[in-house]
C-alpha cells in the first residue's frame, strides 16, 4: 500500500469510491487495483453489527464472493501488524501529504473533494439540463422531490447535485450533514 485516497472529512459514498477506483491512477501511472471501504451500514460487523468492510475491485464493483472468502481466510492467519504512530493526517484539508514510513518508503495521503469526481461522472451519464427543466416545473408542471439523507454519506452529494446543480429548493432536502451517529438513527437506508 503506497497511497491512500480519502474524501475530505473522511466521507465518500460507496458509488463515489467506485467512481474513484475506475478514474484515478497512483503516482507511477498504474491504475488502482481496488479500494477498501469502511462503512457504517447494513453490512454486518463491529460490536453493534453496524460496521462493515467492503472491497471493490479495479472495475469499481464489489469483489466476487470467491475473492472476499480468500481475503477472509488470509485474515485469519494474521499474527501481527504494525502501527505507524507518527502518521498524523489532516482529513479536513484537501491536498497530498507524503510520509516516509520507517524505511519502508513513501506513503502518500491524498485528501480529495468528496463529491467532485462523482458529480462529474453523473453529469456525463445524465442530462442535467433536462433534469433541471423537469425539477423546475418547466416540463410537466410542479414536480416535487423530497430527499432524506439520514445523516449519512449521501448528504453532500444531494446538496451538490440536487440543490446546486439542479436547482431544487433545499427545504426539500433533510438530514444532509453527515453525523457519526446518524443523528441517533440506524445507518441502514433499507429500513
TrEMBL record:
<keyword id="KW-0479">Metal-binding</keyword>
<dbReference type="InterPro" id="IPR005841">
    <property type="entry name" value="Alpha-D-phosphohexomutase_SF"/>
</dbReference>
<dbReference type="InterPro" id="IPR016066">
    <property type="entry name" value="A-D-PHexomutase_CS"/>
</dbReference>
<protein>
    <recommendedName>
        <fullName>phosphoglucomutase (alpha-D-glucose-1,6-bisphosphate-dependent)</fullName>
        <ecNumber>5.4.2.2</ecNumber>
    </recommendedName>
</protein>
<dbReference type="GO" id="GO:0005829">
    <property type="term" value="C:cytosol"/>
</dbReference>
<dbReference type="GO" id="GO:0000287">
    <property type="term" value="F:magnesium ion binding"/>
</dbReference>
<dbReference type="GO" id="GO:0005975">
    <property type="term" value="P:carbohydrate metabolic process"/>
</dbReference>
<dbReference type="GO" id="GO:0004614">
    <property type="term" value="F:phosphoglucomutase activity"/>
</dbReference>
<keyword id="KW-0413">Isomerase</keyword>
<dbReference type="Pfam" id="PF02878">
    <property type="entry name" value="PGM_PMM_I"/>
</dbReference>
<comment type="similarity">
    <text>Belongs to the phosphohexose mutase family.</text>
</comment>
<dbReference type="InterPro" id="IPR045244">
    <property type="entry name" value="PGM"/>
</dbReference>
<dbReference type="InterPro" id="IPR016055">
    <property type="entry name" value="A-D-PHexomutase_a/b/a-I/II/III"/>
</dbReference>
<keyword id="KW-0460">Magnesium</keyword>
<dbReference type="InterPro" id="IPR005844">
    <property type="entry name" value="A-D-PHexomutase_a/b/a-I"/>
</dbReference>
<feature type="domain" description="Alpha-D-phosphohexomutase alpha/beta/alpha">
    <location>
        <begin position="9"/>
        <end position="80"/>
    </location>
</feature>
Amino acid at each position: 500500500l503506497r497511497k491512500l485516497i480519502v474524501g475530505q472529512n473522511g466521507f465518500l459514498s460507496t458509488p463515489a469510491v467506485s467512481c474513484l477506483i475506475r478514474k484515478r491512477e497512483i503516482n507511477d501511472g498504474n491504475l488502482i487495483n481496488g479500494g477498501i471501504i469502511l462503512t457504517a451500514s447494513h453490512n454486518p460487523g463491529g460490536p453493534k453489527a453496524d460496521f462493515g468492510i467492503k472491497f471493490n475491485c479495479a472495475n469499481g464493483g464489489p469483489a466476487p464472493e470467491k475473492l472476499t472468502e480468500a481475503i477472509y481466510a488470509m485474515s485469519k492467519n494474521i499474527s501481527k501488524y504494525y502501527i505507524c504512530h507518527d502518521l498524523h493526517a489532516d482529513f479536513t484539508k484537501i491536498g497530498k501529504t507524503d510520509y516516509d514510513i520507517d524505511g519502508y518508503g513513501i506513503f502518500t495521503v491524498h485528501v480529495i473533494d468528496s463529491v467532485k469526481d462523482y458529480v462529474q461522472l453523473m453529469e456525463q451519464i445524465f442530462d442535467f439540463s433536462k433534469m433541471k427543466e423537469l425539477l423546475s416545473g418547466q416540463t410537466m408542471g410542479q414536480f416535487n422531490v423530497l430527499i432524506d439523507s439520514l445523516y449519512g454519506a449521501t448528504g453532500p452529494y444531494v446538496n451538490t447535485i440536487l440543490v446546486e446543480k439542479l436547482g431544487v429548493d433545499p427545504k426539500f432536502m433533510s438530514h444532509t450533514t453527515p453525523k457519526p451517529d446518524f443523528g441517533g438513527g440506524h445507518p441502514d437506508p433499507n429500513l
